[in-house]
Hints:
Number of domains: 3
Strand content: 5-15%
Shape: elongated
Number of helices: 24
Low-confidence stretches: 1-31, 98-109
Distance between the termini: 55 Å
Largest sheet: 4 strands, antiparallel
Amino acid sequence: xxxxxxxxxxxxxxxxxxxxxxxxxxxxxxxxxxxxxxxxxxxxxxxxxxxxxxxxxxxxxxxxxxxxxxxxxxxxxxxxxxxxxxxxxxxxxxxxxxxxxxxxxxxxxxxxxxxxxxxxxxxxxxxxxxxxxxxxxxxxxxxxxxxxxxxxxxxxxxxxxxxxxxxxxxxxxxxxxxxxxxxxxxxxxxxxxxxxxxxxxxxxxxxxxxxxxxxxxxxxxxxxxxxxxxxxxxxxxxxxxxxxxxxxxxxxxxxxxxxxxxxxxxxxxxxxxxxxxxxxxxxxxxxxxxxxxxxxxxxxxxxxxxxxxxxxxxxxxxxxxxxxxxxxxxxxxxxxxxxxxxxxxxxxxxxxxxxxxxxxxxxxxxxxxxxxxxxxxxxxxxxxxxxxxxxxxxxxxxxxxxxxxxxxxxxxxxxxxxxxxxxxxxxxxxxxxxxxxxxxxxxxxxxxxxxxxxxxxxxxxxxxxxxxxxxxxxxxxxxxxxxxxxxxxxxxxxxxxxxxxxxxxxxxxxxxxxxxxxxxxxxxxxxxxxxxxxxxxxxxxxxxxxxxxxxxxxxxxxxxxxxxxxxxxxxxxxxxxxxxxxxxxxxxxxxxxxxxxxxxxxxxxxxxxxxxxxxxxxxxxxxxxxxxxxxxxxxxxxxxxxxxxxxxxxxxxxxxxxxxxxxxxxxxxxxxxxxxxxxxxxxxxxxxxxxxxxxxxxxxxxxxxxxxxxxxxxxxxxxxxxxxxxxxxxxxxxxxxxxxxxxxxxxxxxxxxxx
Length: 755
């Protein structure tokens, strides 16, 4: 039954109402396509002031050309919204360039306006500030309205083809996603699908590097020497350790470390630098093809926003770009302050690990040996780091938003770009500051056994695991990334699923709506709410994962494999959330993934630098190579029947005489017949100063970092040059289109001259 032109908005008391003046402007009879719905709580209708603000807001929207239909149930009032067809005519006039049109030509019939465009225009009008009622967000805060959302309509095909767990191995229908959610969401899933596809070779190579360590699990000369070193005693790690541990006790951990700290690590790090470049360059080609297919190659984002502003307000005055050195200085200072806070979080982790090591040592549990204490500290430290990440993510988002508001961006798109840079920078330090500490600082400022560096002059700083710092970094990476991918994905799905089930169960307690249209609106209302950050959060999650996959991959070659499995789940999880559990996202137009591409390129450069430094300063690769060619049995071109690394373990451990321990220390009391112990460092045996080998190794490490970074970056630049961003077929298609338009204009000009 056709809705009446004059509608009544219910008030709090039964039967009380006020008329909304001509909610539907006069126009040619059009089918009722209610794409958007506003919701108000019936209880708010008891306040005359709120009812008046609601009426003024709706009246303002009516004057802008929006149609309304009012429906109500026991608790809520629903306002169905659609835009006047004249709005879409104006949108078409402003943005769609006529092709081959002549003054005398018949006006071409306009194609039906896609639902994504209708929703985008209505959403833009609702976002704008009205003269009477303020913005919609302000009205929600004041209780005038409760929610707003575009309606899910025609999503059945996506449910059958895409948003099901059983379709995990199926190709994504990117064109259909674009037709339902808009280009922004479609490009996200196109990028995520390509990223997942490209992870396959990276995961296979990483797994091969990891498994190659098993071939040397028992055959490694270093592992053999460690396992047989029953007569070499290690200096105590903790202050209260009352025994000198034989080096052979670290046999198992030494073998495990060799799984990911071997010669293949260097080749894998170079491979991942090349992989990251090829991945981005080929993605740019994929994007160009997709955007050309969608006829968005020449689309301009600023022009789109200005057109929407003019549609919303014909008197709109252009807002120029602004820049303030004072505001920029304040924002830079506050950003640096937040980064210092992120680094401070890493220091909190340091303090925790020092305190935890002392606590676990004091517990005197029989099952906790020195190695078990170290492992427990590393594992619990990784858990603490994960909790810090969860908390600081909320803090970082709030701070980044405030910094963006202070910067006063011109448009929503510009605000999103600036927010992306600020939020990702803060998140980067929140996620990776502790990894940077473990990789490059842990165990390097501890002094030596007789003169240890202490926290607050009391607690001894923690040291690397007995088998090296790579084990600590590997464990930290495995736990944080594992929790980030598994626990976060579970919560990402269970939270909206449980919330939707709870809301649906509560709704069943009330009488179902007899009107099918109202029932459909209620069904959409019961879905989980979305925000402007819903898609942004998905992108951010993938950027952090990409950072884990590339930046510290030299210490965790299984990272690409873990990311691959996670992404296979992530694609369907996001699809199910968006189609089945959440209200419909507002479609947004786009021709690329925006600032995220620059973020990916930045991560690629950081990955080269970080992996080079990990191999040089954290791994044992450089000391092993130097020993082979300078100190070992194969040094200076000598041919030896022995393994070239024979004697490396003894060479890499410094000597400390137990008589030099402070007399009051537990180590001095436990020394007994042990006259000397060994520790990981390059120091002289008498004065404990840094030895000649240390400085020689440091020079080689620095030279390797410079060489590695230059080689890897050159490979990246060559790969970027070798693989063009835009395929030649796309360039030729664009050229042909420009040529065709010029020929048509030339033909029309010739005809006009003849007449």
